[in-house]
TrEMBL record, chain A:
Organism classification: Eukaryota, Metazoa, Chordata, Craniata, Vertebrata
V-ATPase proteolipid subunit C-like domain location: 58-117, 144-202
Job description of the protein: Proton-conducting pore forming of the V0 complex of vacuolar(H+)-ATPase (V-ATPase), a multisubunit enzyme composed of a peripheral complex (V1) that hydrolyzes ATP and a membrane integral complex (V0) that translocates protons. V-ATPase is responsible for acidifying and maintaining the pH of intracellular compartments and in some cell types, is targeted to the plasma membrane, where it is responsible for acidifying the extracellular environment. Proton-conducting pore forming subunit of the V0 complex of vacuolar(H+)-ATPase (V-ATPase), a multisubunit enzyme composed of a peripheral complex (V1) that hydrolyzes ATP and a membrane integral complex (V0) that translocates protons. V-ATPase is responsible for acidifying and maintaining the pH of intracellular compartments and in some cell types, is targeted to the plasma membrane, where it is responsible for acidifying the extracellular environment.
Membrane topology: Multi-pass membrane protein
InterPro entries: ATPase_proteolipid_c-like_dom, ATPase_proteolipid_csu, F/V-ATP_Csub_sf
Transmembrane portions of the chain: 12-35, 55-76, 97-121, 141-171, 178-202
Record's signal peptide: none
Gene3D superfamilies, A to Z: lithium bound rotor ring of v- atpase
UniProt KW keywords: Hydrogen ion transport, Ion transport, Membrane, Transmembrane, Transmembrane helix, Transport
Entry protein name: V-type proton ATPase 21 kDa proteolipid subunit c''
TrEMBL record, chain B:
Residue spans crossing the bilayer: none
Full protein name: V-type proton ATPase subunit d 2
Source organism (scientific name): Collichthys lucidus (Big head croaker)
Ion transport in keyword set: yes
GO CC aspect terms: proton-transporting V-type ATPase, V0 domain
Source superkingdom: Eukaryota
Length: 211, 300
C-alpha cells in the first residue's frame, strides 16, 4: 500500500520538493562549515541591517491578509450550508445571516488593526544601527508581532465561526428551536478573535518611531 | 480535518440531502396512513406530506404497483438531482451506490435469459437507478466470458465481474452465487439475505460462510452466529439491532458522505413501508398493517 501511495502524483511532488529543500540546506550548511565561512551566518547582522520598516510592513500585511483569509474561509463554509439547507427550509435564510456577520466581523478586526499599526510608522533619519537607535528597532518588531497576533487569531476565529455556523444552519433547518442555542457557541467562538485584537493593541501601545 | 474543505465542493448538496431527509414520513404519518380504508384515502394523506402531487397526476386506476412505481420514480428524480450536481469524489461515491442496482439488474437479466424469457419484457422491471446503456444486450450472451468480454467490460461493473467470471456455466444457483460474490461492499444486508435464502436450498453451513462478504459491521462475530443459525428465530435475534438504526445514526455527523447513502436507503425503506401499508389496505388485512419498520420517532 505504501507503493500505491508513492505512485500518486501529489505524493511524488511533495516528497521531491521536501527532499530538494532539505538537501540544499544540508549541503550549503556543510560547505560553509568546511570552508570556514561560518561567520557569514550572522543573525545579529541580519537583524540590525534590515530596516524596521520591513518588519512593520510585514506586520501590517499579515494583519489584514490573514484576517481576510479567516473571514473568507468561514463565510464559504457557512454560506454553502445555508444555501443547501435553505432549499427545503426557506425560513432559515434570514436568521442565519447572523453567522455570516460574525465571520465578517473578523475581517473588520483585521483592517482596523492594520490601520492602527500603519499609523504608527513614522520617518526617522538614522542609517546605521547606532544612529537608528533601539527604539526604532523595538517599534519595528512590535508592529510585526502585533500583525502576527491579530492575523493568526482572526484566521482561526474565522474558521471556527464558519464551521459552527454551518452546523447551526443545518440544525435550524431541522428544528427551529436549536438556532439560538448554537448561536451562543458561535459567540464564544468569535470572542477569541477579539482577544487577538486586544493583545495586539497592547503590543503596539509603547511604539514610538522617529527621532 | 474534513470540515475545513468539505463544504467547498459538497456543502450545498449536504444541506440539500438533509432537507430531503426532513421530508421522510414520521410515526404520525404512518399512523394516519394505516387508518385509511382505501387507496384513495392514502393518496389524500400522502398529498399532505412531502410527496405532494405525486399520485394525483395519474388518471389511471390507482393500484399498488402504480404507487410503487411512482415512489420509485420520485427516488430516482431526487437521486439524479444529487448526482448531476456532484463533484468528485462525491460523484464516485454516488456511482458506487448505483452499482448494486446495476448488479441486480444484470443478474436478473441473465436468469431471465436462461429461462428463455424475452428481454424486452424484463427491461421495464429493472431498477431504474441501476440502468446502464448495454443492459439490453446482456440477455443475449450465452457464457460468462462472452458476457464479460462483449458487454460488461465497457461498463463500470467490469472491475467487479473480473473475479467472478470463473464459473464454467450459468445456472440458477450459480447466478445467485455470482451476485453474492459481487456484493462485497454491501456486506451486512447480503449476509442476512444469504442466510434466509439458503434455508430452502441445500447449501451447508460451511458453504454459506464462504459466501459471506469479508467486511461490514457483522464481521466476524455476527457472521459466525449467522452461519450456525438454523431457523428464523435465531436470525431475528441477530437482526434486531441493525439496518434502519444505523442509517439514521449517519445523520448525526456533519461533513461526510454517509448521509447520502443513508438517505437513499431510508427512502427505499419508506417506499417499502408505504407499499406494505397499501397492500394491507387493499387486501383488507388490517391485522398485519403495523408490520412496517418506522424510521423516525414522531416529533412535534
Amino acid at each position: 500500500m505504501l507503493l500505491e501511495w508513492m505512485m500518486n502524483g501529489h505524493a511524488i511532488l511533495y516528497t521531491g520538493v521536501t527532499l530538494a529543500f532539505w538537501s540544499t540546506i544540508l549541503i550549503v550548511g556543510i560547505c560553509y562549515t568546511i570552508f570556514d565561512l561560518g561567520f557569514r551566518f550572522d543573525v545579529a547582522w541580519f537583524l540590525t541591517e534590515t530596516s524596521p520598516f520591513m518588519w512593520a510592513s510585514l506586520g501590517i500585511g499579515l494583519a489584514i491578509s490573514l484576517s481576510v483569509v479567516g473571514a473568507a474561509w468561514g463565510i464559504y463554509i457557512t454560506g454553502s450550508s445555508i444555501i443547501g439547507g435553505g432549499v427545503k427550509a426557506p425560513r432559515i435564510k434570514t436568521k442565519n445571516l447572523v453567522s455570516i456577520i460574525f465571520c465578517e466581523a473578523v475581517a473588520i478586526y483585521g483592517i482596523i488593526m492594520a490601520i492602527v499599526i500603519s499609523n504608527m510608522a513614522e520617518d526617522f533619519s538614522g542609517t546605521t544601527p547606532e544612529t537608528i537607535g533601539a527604539r526604532n528597532y523595538q517599534a519595528g518588531y512590535s508592529m510585526f508581532g502585533a500583525g502576527l497576533t491579530v492575523g493568526f487569531s482572526n484566521l482561526f476565529c474565522g474558521i471556527c465561526v464558519g464551521i459552527v455556523g454551518s452546523g447551526a444552519a443545518l440544525a435550524d433547518a431541522q428544528n427551529a428551536s436549536l438556532f439560538v442555542k448554537i448561536l451562543i457557541v458561535e459567540i464564544f467562538g468569535s470572542a477569541i478573535g477579539l482577544f487577538g485584537v486586544i493583545v495586539a493593541i497592547l503590543q503596539t501601545s509603547k511604539v514610538k518611531m522617529g527621532d | 480535518m474534513a470540515e475545513l474543505s468539505f463544504n467547498v465542493d459538497h456543502g450545498y448538496l449536504e444541506g440539500l440531502v438533509r432537507g430531503m431527509k426532513a421530508g421522510i414520513l414520521t410515526h404520525t404519518d404512518y399512523h394516519n396512513l394505516a387508518q385509511c380504508d382505501t387507496l384513495e384515502d392514502m393518496k389524500l394523506h400522502l398529498q399532505s406530506t412531502s410527496y405532494g402531487k405525486l399520485l394525483s397526476s395519474s388518471e389511471a386506476d390507482l393500484t399498488v404497483s402504480l404507487v410503487d412505481s411512482k415512489l420509485r420514480e420520485s427516488l430516482v428524480t431526487e437521486f439524479s438531482c444529487l448526482r448531476s450536481n456532484a463533484l468528485p469524489p462525491l460523484s464516485a461515491f454516488l456511482d458506487y451506490i448505483t452499482y448494486s442496482y446495476m448488479i441486480d439488474n444484470v443478474v436478473m437479466l441473465i436468469t431471465g435469459a436462461l429461462k428463455q424469457r424475452d428481454v424486452a419484457e424484463l427491461l421495464p422491471r429493472c431498477h431504474p437507478l441501476g440502468a446502464f446503456d448495454q443492459m439490453a444486450a446482456v440477455g443475449i450472451a450465452r457464457t460468462p466470458t462472452e458476457l464479460y468480454s462483449a458487454i460488461l467490460v465497457d461498463t463500470p461493473l467490469a472491475q467487479f465481474f473480473q473475479d467472478a467470471v470463473s464459473e464454467s456455466n450459468l445456472d440458477e444457483m450459480e447466478a445467485e452465487i455470482l451476485r453474492n460474490k459481487l456484493y462485497k461492499f454491501e456486506a451486512d444486508r447480503r449476509a442476512f439475505i444469504i442466510t434466509v435464502n439458503s434455508f430452502g436450498t441445500d447449501l451447508s453451513g460451511g458453504e454459506r460462510s464462504e459466501l459471506y462478504p469479508s467486511c461490514g459491521k457483522l464481521y466476524p462475530e455476527g457472521l459466525r452466529l449467522l452461519a450456525r443459525a438454523e431457523d428464523h428465530e435465531q436470525i431475528k435475534a441477530v437482526a434486531d439491532c441493525y439496518p434502519v438504526k444505523l442509517n439514521t445514526l449517519a445523520f448525526l455527523q456533519q461533513f461526510h458522505f454517509g448521509v447520502f447513502y443513508s438517505y437513499i436507503k431510508l427512502k427505499e425503506q419508506e417506499s417499502r413501508n408505504i407499499v406494505w401499508i397499501a397492500e394491507c389496505v387493499t387486501q383488507r388485512q388490517k391485522s398485519k398493517i403495523n408490520n412496517y419498520i418506522p424510521i423516525f420517532p414522531g416529533t412535534s
